[in-house]
Amino acid sequence: MTQYHNIIRQSYLMNLWRWKCGLPERTDVQDNLYDLYQSEWSNEFMEKVRKFYIPDEQFVQMMKNRLVIGTYRYGYFHDKDRPKYDHISSARKRYANYLKDGNGEHLIDIANFMMLEFVRGQVAHTTMECISGILLCQYCRITVPDMLDDYVRTKNGVYLVIVYTLVDFIFKTDKPKVISICEHDFHATECI
Questions:
Q1: What is the domain range of residue 8?
Q2: What confidence tens digit (pLDDT) does each residue in 125-147 have?
Q3: Which of 8, 28, 104, 164 could make an S-S bridge to 178, C-beta 3.0–4.6 Å?
Q4: Is 74:23 a contact under the CB 8 Å cutoff?
Q5: How confident is the model at residue 98 (pLDDT cuts 50, 70, 90)?
Q6: What's 4-72 look like in SS3?
Q7: Residue 189 maps to a domain
Q8: pTM of this prediction?
């Protein structure tokens, strides 16, 4: 009886976010975590990042954890039937929230939005041209909202990489707390 109860509970919890987002229920709960860590990621995007920045490994791991959990909430990363989301608007909201409460989860979400936008965004990046004169350092006055505006205006995918770099750098230097905004003990950045 207990095993049956756990199966029903697992199905309910897995579909809870899907119902909230208006997505159909999933009945395939046989995902292998190792496979999800491989499939729910863009090595191509991270190669672009690594051309001029060394990402923080703890930050990258928390990004991966949230993307794996996002599979159960929103669907697979590369699924063509996955609903389209406005990643740029969501990133703006998360950045404003980060400025208000200092929660590092918002920075992780912004980085994931940049990766998702790079892979499957509504504003398709048409070029990955180099941007002359931009040096990423702690003295520059580059802001996340400015880079998001420039991306929308130019459709240059390099701006997505720059936003990723900025939020990773903020995470590394500010050492924000990662506060769970989830009501349960289940925490997407730390649980896996």
A1: 1-30
A2: 556 665 544 444 443 567 889 88
A3: 104
A4: yes
A5: very high
A6: HHHHHHHHHHHHHHHHHCCCCCCCCCCCCHHHHHHHCCCHHHHHHHHCCCCCCHHHHHHHHHHHHHHHH
A7: no
A8: 0.74
